[in-house]
Amino acid sequence: MRDPFHYLRQNYLTALNLVQSCVEQQVKKIVFSSTAALFGGPERSTPIPETAPTQPGSPYGESKLMIERVLYWADAVYGLRSACLRYFNAAGADPLGRAGEDHRPETHLIPLTIDAALGRRPALKLFGTDYPTRDGSCIRDYIHVTDLADAHIRALGQIDNRSVTYNIGNGQGYSNLEVIESVERVSGRKVPWEAAPRREGDPSLLVADSTTLRNKTGWEPKFETLDRIVETALRWRETHPDGYGS
Asked: Which among 29, 64, 101, 242 is least surrounded, fewest beta carbons within 10 Å?
């Protein structure tokens, strides 16, 4: 929200150039990492299906929606088939330890919470404790990266003759405070945290309805509980304290 043109420029303009190049080079298929942030407008009932109104509450979500429209016209005019996969909160790490999160700076809640528990960062800031949820903190649907990868492979097999759009999530919502509790259970450590004001553009509740993906492809998440997701993320952070630099 502090730098809207950055997201609009980096996401939309570069994606537009990429899609145009794909058409020119006769690429036939493209899988697009979209986002649940395009549902980030007014509160609505959950879980959220693909048919829910798209009302982005942030420039980031808006940029992703604009790219989906680019792909729509690339299909309508040139026959470039696409799978728009609307991720909810991707999380966790490869169970075999081959890959994990290594962002600079890190912005995702689970690795930030783990680092706070491990004493690798100051107390975690919890943005908003007065939302209309069961404990006052935001609720999100966390999807393990292995399940997300499986969904990509299955979606790719769906776009030989048509484009598709799927929501990808567990269909279970966990609050920010419940993430803290999960990290404490899995790690056996206390998580130091402090309340902070809400962040502009954060919806209180985002939970996916992945029924369409399940019905069309047979996809089922294998990492359904938050503790299982956190466990893989914790193992990665402990064995790779400096990310891939470790």
From this structure: 242
